[in-house]
Amino acid sequence: MNRSIQALESGWKWAVQTARLCCGVPDYDAYVKHLREHHPEREVPSYKEFFRERQVARYKGGGGRCC
Predict the structure, then answer these.
(1) Full domain range(s) for residue 65
(2) 42 SS3 class
């Protein structure tokens, strides 16, 4: 593959990961890798389940923000 295309793909992946982290959504692939390496007995959630759990963890009650 062409180096410039590889650089663009790498930059895009980095930008997407950064945007997700800024919004409080960790990298799903890194999460799956961690689960498989350190918690093989646990079931790996689907991306949809993972995303929902992250939303709940970030926005659940506790005297937090409204906006």
Answers:
(1) 25-67
(2) coil
